[in-house]
Design brief:
The complex is a heterodimer of chains A (152) and B (301). Chain A is 10% helix and 39% strand. Chain A has three helices and eleven strands; from the N terminus they run βαββαββββαββββ. In chain A, strand 4 (82-87) and strand 5 (90-96) form a beta hairpin. The longest helix of chain B is centred in the C-terminal third of the chain and has 19 residues, at 280-298. Chain B has 301 residues and is an alpha/beta fold. Chain B has nine helices and nine strands. Classes of the chains: A mainly beta (152), B alpha/beta (301).
Chain lengths: 152, 301
């Protein structure tokens, strides 16, 4: 067992690293953060060994620092993701994602009889409990729990 | 969005509830007036409902208003594939107020956001039916003289009954003590128990329907439906348990009143109808006055 830690994804000079993403959710996280339209360099690695998760994904986004309400959206599916803020190749801040107070446009309501599943209506949820995450639909008032969270 | 809409009973504060109930009492004294003269109210019933629709249409007619609308989705352009969004946008151009019943949950909240005029929810799927709650509250206040500190007994389908849930939420402003009588399959959902615990509201749960009702101020009956049981044998065991018969009322309080959102099937025996404590038909009539008050509030009249 080697004691030297190998960096599996190339270091960035300035920006944000999102680590400990469950491997099967990596691409959903990319979608939630709309990284397909990001103009700075984005480095993505997946299926790396992780003590915590078994297999994990990592995303490193150069020159980009996210507002809390934007990055916290990923807590809906990856509540244990870790953020490292990088400046001049150094980790200047470590954060965990937190559940937001409301969620708009990302999650599908689990009630098939909700207006949001019948017509083109932007979903809106109030976060009733951050952990385990429980969402109440603004329209049909039914609860979508963490087992049933589906990203639109 | 028009903030004067009524989509869920939570849209009204405690003060607003009391204010509307006071208005309803005024309308009961004078149900006929001209305050809606020159106003057009659209009555959009995407699924059939005789009682609620006639109650609203009576309320509007007795205030001098005109009604446009439809009584069934098949007579609207929904059959052509028109979205609710487009229907509401169009109708809000034609009328001063929209009253809507729709089978999809959340439809009323969506309509209130899309419409330029207030929307009153006459029932959205299994979700809310706030005007029923207001007429239930009016009936309770009228017969008990107050809404405060009452013993409220709710019987039957407490799991799926939207009128039960809505009335529970509305009464929570008034320091009630609830007694829930239901089969285990249909007990009051956990979310409501959590709500009551959080708000220090006293409640008791029972499965037997017997002389405990002697302590009741209000007995709110609902129907136990076969379709709600996963196991039909369970239904067979309980189907005759939650039926109110006249002899069960002999030691109840003088001020007890029996309410039912109707239609009544067999859960209240016909021999109860002659008992002065039976209030369910007057309750339905109160619907006209409560709805007049709600409409008047929505239009700032």
């Amino acid at each position: 067992m080697t004691t030297k830690k190998e960096l599996q994804v190339r270091a960035i000079k300035n920006g944000t690293v999102i680590d400990h993403i469950p491997a099967e959710l990596l691409f959903k996280v990319i979608n939630i953060l709309e990284l397909d339209s990001c103009s700075t360099s984005v480095t993505i690695g997946n299926n790396y060994k992780s003590g915590m998760l078994g297999k994990k994904g990592i995303i490193k986004i150069s020159e980009k620092f996210f507002e809390a309400d934007v990055i916290n959206k990923i807590s809906l599916i990856a509540p244990n993701a870790k953020l490292n803020i990088i400046r001049d190749y150094q980790v200047v801040e470590k954060r965990v994602v937190e559940a937001p107070k409301k969620v708009e446009g990302i999650v599908k309501c689990m009630n098939p009889k909700c207006i949001t599943n019948v017509e083109d209506v932007y979903t809106k949820f109030k976060v009733m409990s951050p952990s385990p995450i429980t969402l109440k639909c603004h329209y049909c008032e039914k609860i979508t729990d963490h087992k049933n969270i589906r990203i639109k | 969005m028009d903030n004067r809409s009524l989509v869920s009973i939570d849209d009204y504060t405690k003060e607003e509830i009391l204010d509307v109930l006071a208005k309803a009492a005024e309308f009961e004294k004078n149900p006929n007036s001209n305050i809606l003269e020159g106003k057009v109210v659209s009555s959009l019933f995407f699924e059939p409902s005789t009682r609620t629709r006639l109650s609203f249409e009576t309320a509007i007619s007795r205030m001098g208003g005109k009604i446009v609308g439809f009584t069934d989705a098949s007579s609207s352009s929904t059959t052509k594939g028109e979205t609710l969004n487009d229907t509401i946008k169009m109708v809000s151009n034609y009328s001063d107020l929209i009253v809507m019943r729709h089978p999809i949950e959340g439809s009323a909240r969506w309509a209130s956001e899309v419409s330029d005029v207030p929307v009153i929810n006459a029932g959205d799927g299994a979700n809310q039916h706030p005007t029923q709650t207001m007429l239930d509250l009016y009936s309770i206040q009228k017969t008990q003289g107050t809404l405060e500190n009452l013993n409220i007994f709710m019987v039957g389908d407490l799991k799926y009954g939207r009128t039960v849930h809505s009335l529970l939420m509305a009464l929570s402003h008034f320091n009630p003590t609830f007694h829930f009588i239901a089969p285990k399959e249909l007990e009051i959902p956990r979310a409501y128990k959590i709500f009551m615990d959080k708000n220090n509201i006293k409640y008791h749960e029972h499965t037997e329907f017997n002389e405990i009702i002697n302590d009741a101020d209000i007995l709110y009956m609902t129907r136990v439906q076969r379709e709600r049981f996963a196991d039909p044998l369970e239904y067979e065991k309980v189907k005759n348990v939650y039926i109110l018969k006249n002899d069960m009322l002999k030691d109840t309080r003088d001020n007890l009143r029996i309410l039912h959102p109707l239609p009544r099937v067999n859960e209240i025996a016909v021999d109860v109808d002659a008992n002065p404590k039976a209030y369910y038909f007057e309750q339905a009539l109160n619907g006209v006055y409560a709805r007049q008050a709600i409409i008047a509030k929505a239009l700032d009249l």
